[in-house]
Write a structure and sequence with these properties.
The structure holds two protein chains of two kinds. Chain A is built from four helices and two strands, in the order H-E-E-H-H-H. By secondary structure, chain A is mostly helical. Chain B has one domain. In chain B, a hairpin with a 2-residue loop joins strand 1 and strand 2. The chains are: A mainly alpha, B mainly alpha. Chain A: Keywords: Cell membrane, Membrane, Transmembrane, Transmembrane helix.
C-alpha cells in the first residue's frame, strides 16, 4: 500500500490517539480537596468505579491505536482489524455515557435519593472530569469515522459501478 | 408509460428484482425478532418500575411520623435515557422486520443494504450507551458512594432495584443480538454495487 493511500487513516488514528491519551491523562490527574467543617474532603477519580472504568477504557483505546498506527495494513487481516475497531468504538461510547450519568448526579444531585451535588465543594475536580469527558467524546467520534473508513476499504461498500 | 407483453415495467427509480429465499435468509429476521422482544421488555419493565415505601422518621409521644417515599424511574435521567433508547431500538427492529417481510422487492437504486447497516450501527451505539449509563447508575444505587456521602438506596427499595437489574439484563441480551445482526448486515455489504451512479457525485 503506497504512502498516499495510508495518509487519511494514519491521520485519523493519530487524532484518535491524541484524544484518547488526553482523556486518560486528564481523568487520572483530576484531584481536588475541600475543607468542610474541619473535615478534609478529597475527590479523586478512584472514588467512583465509573471514572476508573473511563480511564481504563481510554488507556486501552490509546494503546490499541498506538499499535495500529504502525501496523502494516494488509487485506488479509483487514476484517479482524475492523472487528477490533468496532469493539473499541462501542467501549468508548459506553464509557462516556456512563461517566455522563454519574457526572450529572454529581453536578445536580438527586433530591429523590437524598444525594447532594458535590460540584459546589470540589469545582476543580468537576472541571477536570468535564474536560476528560469532552476528550473522550472526541475519541469516540473519531473512532466512528475510522470505522467508516475501514468499512469502505475492506468491504468496498461505496463501490459505484453502473 | 404503457408496457406491452411480458415487459418489466420500470417505475422511476424502483427496480423489480427477482428474489429467492434461501434457508439461511431466516437468520437475520429471527435474531431481529428476539432483539425486538428483548429491548421491548427492557423498556417496559423499566418504564413501569415503581415502588412506594413508608418510613418512620420520628416518634412524638406514641404516634410515629411516617413519610412515604416513592422510587420512580423518572427520578434518574440515566433511566429515562435507558427507556427512550430501548424504545427506539425496539421500534427500529420492528420496522426492519416489516421491511424484510413485506418489502422484499423494494430496493431504491441499491441503497437498501447500506441504509440498513447504517441504521443498525446507529441503534447499536445508542443502546450500548443507554445500557451502560443505567448499569453504572444502578451500581451507584446499590453500593452508594462513601466519598461523596451518597447513601445506597437498594437496601430500602429491593424490588425497584431487582426490576431495574432485570430490565438491564434484557437490554444487554438485546444489545448482543443487535451486534450480531449488525455484523451480519455489514458482511452482506461486501462488494456492494450501487445501480445508476447518478446519486453520488
Amino acid at each position: 500500500m503506497n504512502l498516499a493511500k495510508r495518509i487519511p487513516i494514519f491521520l485519523l488514528r493519530f487524532l484518535a490517539l491524541g484524544a484518547a491519551v488526553t482523556a486518560t491523562v486528564i481523568m487520572v490527574t483530576s484531584k481536588d480537596t475541600a475543607q468542610v467543617l474541619n473535615m478534609k474532603f478529597e475527590a479523586k477519580y478512584t472514588n467512583s468505579p465509573t471514572f476508573k472504568y473511563f480511564a481504563l477504557i481510554n488507556a486501552i483505546a490509546s494503546g490499541y491505536t498506538l499499535i495500529m498506527l504502525f501496523f502494516p495494513s494488509k487485506s488479509s487481516c483487514g476484517h479482524l482489524i475492523l472487528v477490533f475497531d468496532l469493539i473499541m468504538a462501542l467501549l468508548l461510547d459506553s464509557s462516556i455515557s456512563a461517566c455522563l450519568a454519574i457526572g450529572q448526579v454529581g453536578k445536580k444531585g438527586n433530591s429523590h435519593a437524598g444525594w447532594l451535588p458535590i460540584c459546589g465543594q470540589v469545582p476543580k475536580f468537576c472541571d477536570h472530569v468535564t474536560g476528560a469527558l469532552i476528550a473522550g467524546f472526541l475519541a469516540a467520534v473519531i473512532y466512528f469515522l475510522i470505522i467508516l473508513y475501514s468499512l469502505h476499504k475492506f468491504l468496498n461498500i461505496f463501490n459505484i459501478k453502473s | 408509460m404503457a408496457s406491452e407483453g411480458g415487459e418489466k415495467p420500470e417505475v422511476f427509480g424502483v427496480e423489480r428484482v427477482a428474489v429467492t429465499t434461501r434457508s439461511y435468509d431466516w437468520i437475520i429476521p429471527t435474531l431481529r425478532l428476539l432483539a425486538f422482544f428483548a429491548t421491548l421488555a427492557a423498556a417496559l419493565v423499566m418504564a413501569l418500575n415503581k415502588q412506594k415505601k413508608t418510613f418512620v422518621v420520628a416518634t412524638i409521644g406514641t404516634t410515629p411520623i411516617q413519610v412515604t417515599l416513592t422510587a420512580k424511574f423518572r427520578h434518574t435521567p440515566a433511566f429515562v435515557f435507558f427507556v427512550i433508547v430501548n424504545g427506539i431500538a425496539s421500534l427500529h427492529n420492528l420496522l426492519m422486520l416489516i421491511v424484510n417481510l413485506v418489502g422484499r422487492k423494494f430496493d431504491y437504486k441499491g441503497l437498501r443494504p447500506l441504509v440498513i447497516a447504517a441504521l443498525d450501527m446507529m441503534n447499536v451505539a445508542l443502546v450500548s450507551g443507554g445500557v451502560n449509563a443505567a448499569a453504572f447508575m444502578g451500581q451507584l444505587g446499590r453500593d452508594g458512594n462513601s466519598h461523596a456521602r451518597w447513601n445506597k438506596i437498594c437496601d430500602k427499595f429491593e424490588s425497584y432495584c431487582d426490576r431495574g437489574s432485570g430490565a438491564m439484563l434484557a437490554s444487554f441480551i438485546g444489545l448482543g443480538l443487535m451486534i450480531i445482526v449488525n455484523i451480519i448486515s455489514i458482511v452482506k455489504l461486501r462488494n456492494h454495487k450501487l445501480v445508476n451512479s447518478s446519486i453520488v457525485p
